[in-house]
Amino acid sequence: MSHLLEILGKAMTVDVAELIWHWFGTIKDINCEENSEEVQLLEKIIGLIDNMKTDAAQEQLEEFFIKYPSSLHGRLIAASMYLKENKVNNAIK
Predict the structure, then answer these.
(1) What does the alpha-carbon distance between residue 2 and residue 79 come to, in Å, rounded to a whole number?
(2) Are 65 and 74 spatial neighbours (Cβ–Cβ below 8 Å)?
(3) pTM, whole model, 2 decimals?
(4) Is pLDDT at 11 greater than 60 in this prediction?
């Protein structure tokens, strides 16, 4: 059984960026006001990243961090953008 799990485990990959987006979608439904400006901006940024418009997403993130400099959700979304582009070092920063 352990050999089967090992084989399956090696074949599976997880897109961490999409996992973060899914997590944000779930957590915002539980903890955030859906119509808040912060949530709307982050959803817009996620849409830009998903459509591979990373330059526009970067600009939106810079504007977002001016308004919400200590936003944990914003930092996770920014990290997901860098992970989507395979820029792991930037995602860690």
Answers:
(1) 34
(2) yes
(3) 0.69
(4) no
